[in-house]
Structure formats: structure tokens, C-alpha cells
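just leaving the lab so this will be short. what follows is a protein written twice so to speak, once as letters and once as C-alpha cells for the fold. can you read through it and tell me how you think this chain folds. thanks a lot i owe you, the record is right below.

___
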Amino acid sequence: MNPLTALIMKELKDLFFSKTALLLSLAICFIFGYSFYSAVSLYGTASSSAVNNPLYAAGFEPVPGVFVPTFGGLFLIFSLLLPFLFIRLLSLERKQNTLELLLQLPFSLGEIMAAKALAAILFILFIVFMSIPALLLWTSWGGRLPLEELTVLAGGYFAYGVLILSISLFSSAVFSAASASIFALMVIISSWLVDFGKEMNISSLMLVLSGWTFTKNMKYFEEGIFSLKALSYFAVLSALFFFSAYYFLRFDLRKKWRPISVIVVLGAVLMIIASLVSFNRDVTESRRNSFPQHLAESLGKIKTMKVEIYLEKTDSRFRDYENSFLKRLAIVRDDVESTMATGDRLKSNYGLFVYTVNGKSETTYSTSEEEIFGIIFDLAGIIIGRTPERAHYRGYPLVTSERQQAAVIFVYFLVLPLVILIAFGSKRVRSTRRSK
């Protein structure tokens, strides 16, 4: 066997068949299963009144209604439990002084780190693939599976898992096991605190930082938007933590601050570049994040467009306006400049919206989509003819029986845990026989 392949197999065995991985896998089965069971139960109850009502049925979408809540359980698993598994990848090597022994074999530190990262990435994929039984159950009941939207959702959680991996490797490269766990959780929870600070309007700094939090960027994937900006955000942060971990572990670097400083500066530059990327694509079947096609085409004809908003970011009107108009506008036009007024101008004109199109401006206090488009197209000199009929999204309500819901409990609370325990036990037995 190739020495590098042998190293990768060793890392896979050490990770997948550790007691920590066993406990985590069982916890994922229970949490994922319970999340799916709860989502299916609520979706089925609500669907009972929509099956024979086409107008009401249009609001039933499987991904936001069932699979986003189901994957939501993984967010807690990734954030609070995954670091404890990944930190041991390096902390045990450092504690037992086996990292120096590995380096005496024909392996470089980069190869060792890459092997550990590959094993961890495969474990993240294993966690994401635990959703497959849920998908199979849903389709067997006659449920709709929007594959493109589901792929974006699962891909977002995979990217988040890789970020947690890189943070964990960095923590274990710098601190001892206990301190590394605390540091990794501090980094993750600090993102939540920024979101909380924004909601409570604690300071303007929180509003600025809120655009860089993990949860903010995860929202794109959960809402069915393929965002190149969010993907770049996770990729750059993951690379920054991973390469920092590599250089902190190097024994031959007396002045580690030099490469670390270069990585931090380069990471900051790449993060700024990533923040300027604005490619977003709505992958939902209902096109809930998009404007009707005729409006999108008309907006594309406008040369320049600016929006000045006289609201606080914490105002509920702004949040509604942002979700119903600004986010959808960004998918059609990624060059629209939106600014938030401040100071005395904000106080004296609170609630006002100023639209500037091709150098002409008009104001309104309304957030009605009809009035907004009327102002924009009047300023642009574009005449919108008869509104074409928008393709109707029929919706996919699904009423599930108690027996079908019980199948979720059977699969995730009995079958999957049993398979995992059998695989773990058989591997342990084989290892014990070999040692004898």
C-alpha cells in the first residue's frame, strides 16, 4: 500500500471508529430524526386544509417547510459538538508526542495535515448523507424533492462544517485540548453574540459586523439562494484558519509571526474581495426570491439605480423591506447602491425612501412593491405594458399518517443507531483479535 494511502486510512480509522465519533453519530441520529419527525408532523397537519385548496396549497414548499427545519438540527451539532471531535485530531498527537514520530517517517507536515483534514471532511459528508433516509422516506410518501434547492441547502451545511473543522484544527494547534475546545466555542458563539447585538441594537459596530457572521451567510443557502459571496466567505475563512494551524505546528519556524502575519493580511484582503462578490441565483421552484420575469427584464434595462433608506436597520419596517424587496433586487441587479441615512437627516426624514434612477430622484414612504416599481419605471422612462400572467406555483402539501411518521422514529432511533453500533463493535472486535 502506498505510504500516503496508509496514512489516510490510519486517520480515517482513528476518526470514524473513535468513541467520540460513535457518541456524536448517535446524537446526530436522534437530533436529525427528531427534527425531521417534528417538521413532517407540522407540515402534514397544516397540509390537511390545503390539499383541496389550490390557492392555499401554493404556500407549501417542501424545502423551507420540511428540510430547512430538519437540517437546522445539524447547525447545533456542527457548532457545539463537532469541535470536540476534530480538536482531538491534533491534540492527541501533541499530547502523546506522536506528531514528531510521524514526521520522522516519509511524511511532511503538510501531508499529515492534509490526511487529517481529508478524514474530517469525509466525516462531515457522512453526517450530511444521514439526510438520505429522510429524503427516501419523503419520496416514498409521494413528497416533492426539489433537487437543486436541496443541493444548495446541503452544500451550505457542508461548507459550514468545513469551516468548523478549520477552526478546530487552528485551536488544537495553538492550545491544549481543554483550552482549544473553549477557544473554538468562543469563536463560534461570538458570531451568535454579534447577531444578538444587532437585534438588540446595542451599537452601530454590531450592525457592521452582522454582515460577516456565520448565521448571516448560512441564511443564503437556507433561503434557496446560491450565493457566490457566502461561498467565498466560507472558503476564505476556512483556508485562513487551516494555513494558520499549519504554520503554528511547524517546528522549523522560529519566527512564526511572519508567515502568520502574511496569512492574516492576505486573508483580510481576500475577505474584502469576497464581500464585493455579489452573484446570487434563486434556485427555488417557486421563485420566491425573485421578481416576475417581465419586471426583472425591465430592471435590467436601467443604467444606474440608487436607493437611500431613512430607517434604522433594527426597525421592523426595514427588515420587511429588505426581505421583500432589497434581497430580490440584488438577485436581478447586483450593482444597485443602497445606503442608510444617518444623523440629523435620518431623524428629520424618518421612514422615507429615495429612489434615484438614471440621475433622477423621487421619494416615497411606501414599501408597496406596486408603488415602488411605478416610481422606478417612471423615472427610467420605461413603460410596463399589460402584466403577463406569472407562472403559478401549485405547491406541494402532503398529509402524512401516524404510521408514516412512526417510520421516521423507527429509522432514525433504531435502524441507523443499530447499524452504527454494529459497525463500531465489529471493527473493535477485529482490532482486538489482531492485537492478540
About this structure: Residues 3-284+409-435 form one domain. Strands lie at 225-227, 280-282, 305-309, 337-340, 353-357, 360-364. The chain has two domains: 3-284+409-435, 293-386.
